Write the structure tokens for this entry.
Amino acid sequence: MRELSARRAGDAELIAIVENKSCAVDAVQVLTGCTFRKGNLYFRDHGKMVFTFATRANGRSVRLRLPPVVPPGISEIPADQRRRRQVEFMLAQDPSEFFDLRTEVLASLPPTARIHESYPCEECGEMVMATRLRTRGEKSFCIPCYENAQEQ
């Protein structure tokens, strides 16, 4: 946020793109104010410890990448103690030097959040956002009910 001269998001002016679903995403939400509900937190299931933050005003972004964590002497530590040593090593580092940081301008930002109407699933009765409804004939279903009916 310092690199972008950005403040905690009150609305959707700051966006975060996370590439994993670890507990680190909880910290991203708390620190930046970016949330799924506001539509400024985007999840890309790449399984990488990579986080991109951008401002809508100018498209500037910062990409943080967690490099491999290899504490000195780790190969001499018993395998069952290595994870603990890695965490201890990480916590002892200066965070500003720990992540690889790249400042750039994104070619395109994800679109701003849109609010869609919700309708009841004709099988379970739960409300479903219109863009997630699946139809069969004249009936509309939530994704789980639609997929369940296909399996039977």
